[in-house]
Amino acid sequence: MSARRQHSDKHTLPPNPTYRTIEFSDGNASLWPRNTTEIADQDGHVNFMQPIDLDIPIAIRWRVALGAAVANAMNWPVGPSYVLQDWPAGYRMFDHHKGVQSAPRHDIYLFGGPSRFRSIAEFVPHIIWLANNMTTNCGCKYCTKKPQREITTDISNAGIFTPVHRGAGPHRSRQLQKQSALRKVGFHASVQKASKLKQSRHITKIAMVVERDQDLRAVCSHDANKMRLKRWYREGEAVWVALNHPIPLSGDTVKITLWPAIIEDVQLQKTVTNLQNETTSVSLPPAEMGEPSEQSESAVHPVRAPPWEVTETYAYKVKFLAISRVYTVADSQVLPYHAYIPPNDVFTFIQSLSPDVFNIDKEFLQSCNPQSFPPPAWPSAVSAYSYALQIGASLALFWNMTDEWQFKFTPQEPVKQPQQYQSSLTSAIAAASSQNAALHQAGSSSISTAVPPSSGYYSTFKLSGYRDGLSTQEMQAVAEGMLGPSPVIGQTIEQLNFQGMWWGAERIWVDEIVRLKPLRAVLAPEGTQHILPPAGPGKAQTELCHALGRSPKEYGAGARGLFMRLERLFLVEGISGGQKTKECRASGVLYELADNDWEDPDKVTGNASAASESISSGPIPPASTQNPLSNLQPGPVSPYLLPEAPEGYYFRPILKDGFEMTISLTMISGRYYPGILSHHLLKDIVLEAIAKESEANMNGERRDDATGRNKHLWSLEGLNAGYVNSVDPTKYKIDRVQMIRDADQTTRDIMASYLEQAKRRPVDELMDTGGA
Length: 772
What we know:
The chain has three domains: 17-164, no CATH class; 233-274 and 305-398 and 735-772, no CATH class; 410-674, no CATH class. It contains 20 helices and 25 strands. The two termini are 53 Å apart.
């Protein structure tokens, strides 16, 4: 899959088209791009705009779709196939070529208006406004400042224009909703041979979603690592926004300091700081030299540094929940939705109020302005804040798979392995399973393992379904229940894959690191045939444990979280209870957080090569730990770096060479936020928690008791198990817009019902929280 867009050349005009012209226009040719000449730089890259003629297939596609949309909006007679004769006056289409000259990326834009239009869906409301003689208000995203997702949903529901979605369409979404495994199937996990796709003319190239590439590079790239604050947040995600002025509720301490919101847009801002002119000496090769040789020496020439410094930061356009007000805030004012829990005293204050205080009328809620100065009085803010909290809680229950694509392949006869290998593999996994089960209680920390039949397609372990003495047919059934029916040799099969998903408050993409729910120690604590045992504590941690009289075994990687780099999101079909079922699965390589100074007891000495940078872009472990195990190699190549690991740790892959893990989505806790604990909005909370933990260490108390209600923070960076800070979405929705609307309606129903019942109770019963 590539981030490069390619446009189809198969779009043609319909038979007997009816051409129409848009008479009115706000187009201006002076707004067309000027860089229309193809010039390759020294790296062989190009960056120019190519004018697109009307008879080019992509232009035909736009003209046909726009003609149909205008016809629907203007109620033109049904029957003819309407096509735009030409673009509105002053408009023209351009193809943006960017990247390697031999295979650049292509992005289509329509220029001429106040803003450039990137898609048909963006231009539909604007051209309808032009067709109405520009007498009404334009409904496009650039004129209304509304998110495109909402606009596309509205024009689709109105029957004006329905785009061809990259994501799951309504029909398939309804199938997923009816057969959602999150409601019908338990946890599943399996280890199998990693799928390695090879170049083939039988495989259709699928373009990567542009938003996915941008979101991943904003966190997993060298440039992102240089940012003061990374662009953690993505359009449509729920977040917390720090208020300009906290809203006092009671006294000087009980305050509303952050408000839940939805990200609507991300903007890169550059700040130029004037500096004093300084002369800096840098090494430059002599002018008469071409390529410097090994024998040549660089000459030192004084170069005047620029008298300014450019700092890049991000700003987010956010819509506050409940009040529907839109603000633009700095990146330093935003926190992930799972990074903050309102203080207990705020909840206590709200619960102590009479139900008569609350007003959930829409006009009343929208009258509240949390960012005003002076801040609003608590009677007008508490209703909106309570409503916003409930919307966020409702939104966390929703999920959705996005940007689907069909993967087609023809299975080949697997390479037959010697019978001795299969027997020894079965024995090894069964022995590891028995040993792990003896060390950890069944159902909570043990994982039964099962080896499927000798077809060679599956090597799995599962939380349920395996028992000693399974027949070949029973083992095959277990494997097919995990990964779907075994493929038929020579028969082409299709599998529905996805590039991303909405998971509660968060937007998750393939190729990124996610946190899993289990503690690392739960997964193969003694290791299995294909899973390494957890790394032990480093030297510094070991010495500290000895000083405190504690066992070092409790403080290695097993005490921290478990990670997966998502490599695939896909749909499997199986049979459960005699009926066909469907379930979404995720697969990828697993990682743990190992101490930088941990020494691998099985390290390879001699000529073993150093681990690839793709294993970890975080802190590099000491030389003693950089040599991988003889049977452990870097995970599958990804175009993105791994995000930075927390300070003092590095990401260590724990699966043996050539294997990946397949899991149910229910095992995913959420996104990983590198460096989030250093955010200034969390500074006081983190310092307080660290102080309590240090005090507990000195007093010999348990670590879990010391961290208290702040354990969820450590989980965001993988320093604690993922289940400590996770969501369990169970309700599938068509798209993100529908999620937000349903969350609002659900909140209204819940609060209306609660307030109606509360007003019927005696006051003393209402105040009795123990009976609530």
